[in-house]
Design goal:
The complex is a heterodimer.
Chain A: H1 3-28, E1 36-40, H2 44-54, E2 67-72, H3 88-100, E3 105-109, H4 116-122, H5 125-131, E4 135-137, E5 144-148, E6 156-160, H6 161-164, E7 168-172, E8 174-178, E9 182-184, H7 205-216, E10 220-229, E11 242-251, H8 254-262, H9 273-280, E12 293-297
Parallel strand pairs in A: 1-12, 2-3, 2-7, 3-4, 7-10, 8-10
Antiparallel strand pairs in A: 1-11, 5-6, 8-9, 10-11
Helix pairs in contact in A: 2-3, 3-5, 7-9
Chain B: H1 7-32, H2 47-50, H3 53-63, H4 73-83, H5 86-91, H6 93-107, H7 123-136, H8 147-176, H9 180-193, H10 202-214, H11 222-227, H12 229-237, E1 246-247, H13 257-261, H14 284-288, E2 294-295, H15 312-329, H16 351-357, H17 363-367, E3 373-375, E4 388-390, H18 403-407, H19 418-422, E5 428-431, H20 437-441, H21 447-451, E6 459-467, E7 473-481, H22 491-495, E8 504-507
Antiparallel strand pairs in B: 1-2, 3-4, 5-8, 6-7
Helix pairs in contact in B: 1-6, 3-7, 3-16, 7-12, 7-15, 8-9, 8-10
Classes of the chains: A alpha/beta, B mainly alpha.
């Protein structure tokens, strides 16, 4: 057989295989869980459980024996009613679900902005996560290691090993106002999983967020929009800076989750450059409304 | 004659050593608890200082104010009046440190006790007189050589930061060796302790501490014999001394071992030479005596009692020297105009009152969760050496924290609850437009605004156009400080990504505690 013929045969075979695969896929669609869940209700814990259950349950994301890192936003020395950090009940529910799904160990950590001993405590996350059986790790300088990020713009940076070394990473951001990105959602949350002079990243924040999201590859993003911060972000300071929205958005596609989250602030996803760029790089869907969405009320 | 050591005094000596360890452990425990441990209220971790009559006296006299917590010092005074300097021998943690190193140096044969002149013993009394005369004039000089201030300052700014670096090195080594489990546990423990890693002058203060320890090579407990003004004060208060040295002359073999081994040169042999104001009741003499001749029964004082001889003229000259020194302390401009970098912790009294109370102990620096409170060098004049100031490039003032004000042992920093503290302005932030990324380079940033903790934020953003060399105009959101909202916490300066000389920085102007260091006229 000549080389060219071989190539053609392989290509044809590939096409045939692809077609068969697509057919099989079509048959499965009915059973396949939705791409995105949007749940509204009263209790943050019930919202979280329902949002993950709507996606087919935690077993779809976490396997038996996995070391899982649940990465909330624990950046600020603020209490839950100020909506600067992820709601502790959301973190608690996720840790419990990971353990129920058979995770060997669940790590909860964040490279906070204010003193970690304070933020972990005042946010309520330390106590909630520990009660649920997680290992809560304070960030330390010797757990930051410079490594290749393989990003398009962002090549190399100090990475927080306690996040990076986990088998599965679950991103649990809180939806907040931010004066540079307009909103801070899931993709911005990765700035809490790195070390180094992070504040310099604001010069190219959009690219940094995209490359970091690609690098950390969360298996699941759960956007806490129970109480969101609508002004004086990203730390607020007064209850009047927040709005009670009682919403939880979850999905595997982190671009779609952020796109959906942006609408909570009355922002169209295509207005946000980082989302447009991420969609252009095929990291996820900007047109989140076209995905299969499971809406629930609990 | 039967040679047998006294069992009683060997037991008393062991009890004394136990007591010294116990108080040192308590000191260390309170030291490590001087951090955020989960509550906004820290509790009386600074209590040791309140038992110090020297600090009580100087803070009260120099500060011209009563501070209730110093009532505890009355206990020390009473104890000393009745029993003599037992606090030096059994309680003082710095005394314990010196005695421990004296013991080590003797064991290692680095130091051999010998008969030395008693002359230098009087220095500490002159130091005390100098400090007290200064206090009468409103100058608080106690902090330099007060044993508790000296020890705490050295531990807070030198010894423990160094230990922290050593522990970090060990943890890195463990990770490198692949022993991740213990490395992780140790690392989390270290993070929980929150030891601040850097201190201006930490190296210098550490050297002074090493020197003080090294002096034990010359004489055992050199510090306590020669330098300590608190020990001198307790010496002067040693009037009653219920238990007095007595040598049983029928047993004594005149070996002079008791005098040679005496920790503080109180000269137990011969009995008539014993100086009760120098004795710290360590009972070394009783324990080393080969014939159990030394004892401390209760008995009458011989009429002519030995004391460290203080030349009357020198006694007179010391306060005069202090009087003459005062103007020299005041030559510098610090009293006239506040230094821009002298950002005092929230709750600090107005500068003159602050200086008259602060004993440079470093409690506030230890409590500061970000390590931003640093020892001052020259910014506050010679009186202000090692007093605290906020250095935002090193650490900022944590918004919901008032720990420094709670741990100040002398009230130089007024105790504030968190709610009160939020309303205290300690300085004002300024933007250096020549270095700020949006202003100078037309690049996006907003980091300072993002971190500003007040709500509404003291840092506003304004659209600012910059003409770039290629002729295009870059419009970026640029910081503008609302001085009425700014509390001077310095987190903006701390987080500014312009790494060397920040593009936003805090100066002391507008601080609430000062009537003169005013910015905007608001009468």
């Amino acid at each position: 057989m000549r080389r060219r013929d071989f190539m053609r045969d392989v290509a044809l075979g590939g096409l045939a295989f692809g077609a068969a695969g697509r057919a099989a896929f079509a048959l499965q669609t009915a059973a396949k869980p939705p791409d995105l869940s949007w749940v509204e209700g009263e209790s943050p814990e019930a919202l979280t459980r329902s949002a993950v259950a709507a996606l087919g349950g935690m077993k779809n994301f976490v396997g038996r024996g996995d070391v899982v890192c649940v990465k909330p936003n624990i950046g600020w020395d603020r209490t839950p009613e100020l909506a600067a950090c992820t709601n502790p009940e959301v973190v608690k529910a996720l840790v419990e679900m990971c353990r129920e799904a058979g995770a060997k160990e669940v790590i909860v950590t964040d490279h906070s902005t204010n003193q970690a001993a304070r933020t972990f405590l005042r946010s309520g996350i330390q106590d909630a996560a520990k009660a649920a059986g997680a290992r809560v790790l304070l960030p330390s300088a010797f757990r930051m290691k410079k490594m290749s990020l393989g990003g398009e713009w962002f090549k190399e940076w100090e990475v927080f090993l306690d996040v990076y070394e986990a088998d599965k990473i679950i991103n649990v951001p809180i939806a907040k106002h931010h004066s540079l990105s307009r909103v801070t959602l899931g993709m911005k949350n990765w700035l809490g999983a790195i070390g180094g002079a992070r504040n310099q990243l604001h010069q190219r924040l959009d690219e940094a967020k995209i490359d970091l999201s690609r690098f950390f590859k969360p298996v699941l993003t759960v956007l806490d929009a129970y109480r969101i911060l609508v002004r004086n972000g990203p730390q607020g300071g007064r209850p009047s800076d927040t709005e009670l929205r009682k919403t939880m958005i979850a999905g595997r596609d982190y671009v779609a989750v952020d796109a959906a989250g942006a609408t909570l602030f009355g922002i169209k996803p295509e207005e946000l450059p980082f989302l447009k760029m991420a969609a252009e790089r095929k990291l996820g869907r900007l047109d989140w409304e076209k995905l299969r969405i499971e809406k629930r009320k609990v | 004659m039967k040679k047998e050591k006294s069992r009683k005094y060997r037991i008393l000596q062991a009890l004394r050593i136990l007591s010294q360890w116990a108080f040192f452990a308590l000191f260390l425990y309170l030291f490590t608890r001087t951090r955020f441990t989960g509550s906004d209220v820290i509790g009386p971790v600074e209590r040791f200082f309140h038992f110090d009559p020297l600090l009580a006296l100087t803070a009260t006299v120099a500060g011209r104010a009563l501070f209730a917590a110093f009532a505890w010092a009355g206990a020390t005074v009473l104890l000393t009046l009745v029993l003599g300097r037992v606090v030096c021998g059994w309680v003082c943690p710095l005394g314990g440190v010196h005695q421990f190193f004296s013991f080590l140096f003797k064991k290692a044969r680095l130091h051999k006790p010998r008969d030395v002149s008693a002359g230098p013993l009087k220095w500490k009394y002159f130091i005390l007189l100098f400090v007290l005369a200064g206090a009468l004039l409103g100058l608080n000089l106690a902090g330099y050589l007060d044993p508790l201030s000296f020890l705490y300052r050295s531990f807070a700014t030198a010894v423990f930061p160094a230990l922290g670096h050593a522990a970090t090195g060990l943890i890195k080594l463990l990770y490198a060796l692949g022993v991740d489990g213990p490395a992780g546990t140790l690392g989390q423990f270290l993070e929980t302790l929150t030891l601040n890693p850097v201190y201006l002058q930490g190296f210098f203060i550490g050297l002074l501490f090493l020197a003080a320890v090294g002096l034990n090579l010359l004489r055992e407990r050199f510090w306590c014999r020669v330098l300590c003004p608190a020990g001198a004060l307790l010496g002067l208060l040693s009037l009653g001394n219920v238990f007095k040295l007595k040598i049983d002359k029928t047993k004594c073999i005149d070996c002079k071992l008791c005098s040679l081994q005496c920790q503080t040169q109180a000269a137990p042999y011969p009995e008539e030479d014993w100086k009760r104001a120098e004795c710290v009741y360590c009972f070394t003499c009783g324990a080393v005596c080969p014939t159990a001749a030394v004892g401390f029964p209760t008995r009458d004082v011989p009429r002519k009692e030995k004391r460290v001889s203080l030349d009357r003229r020198k006694i007179l000259w010391t306060p005069i020297a202090a009087l003459a020194a005062l103007p020299f302390f005041r030559i510098n401009p610090a009293g006239r105009r506040a230094a821009s970098s002298l950002i005092r912790p929230p709750g600090a009294l107005p500068e003159p009152a602050f200086l008259s109370r602060c004993v440079k102990c470093g409690e506030c620096m230890k409590a500061c969760p970000t390590g931003g409170l640093q020892p001052v060098l020259g910014e506050a004049g010679p009186e202000g050496l090692w007093t605290p100031r906020l250095v935002p490039r090193i650490g900022y003032c944590e918004y919901y924290c008032s720990l420094c004000s709670q741990v100040c042992p002398t009230g130089a920093i007024k105790e504030l609850g968190v709610e009160e503290k939020l309303a205290v302005k300690i300085g004002t932030a300024w933007v250096d437009k020549n270095r700020c990324l949006p202003y100078a380079l037309g690049k996006p940033c907003i980091v300072c605004e993002e971190h500003c903790p007040t709500s509404p934020k003291a840092i506003k953003l304004v659209d600012h156009p910059v003409l770039l060399p290629d002729g295009t105009v870059s419009v970026q959101r640029a910081p503008f400080v609302d001085t009425a909202l700014c509390i001077g916490c310095g987190i903006c300066e701390n987080k500014c990504p312009v790494m060397d000389q920040p593009a936003i920085y805090v100066t002391s102007i507008g601080e609430h505690r000062s009537e003169t260091n005013r910015l905007l006229l608001d009468l």
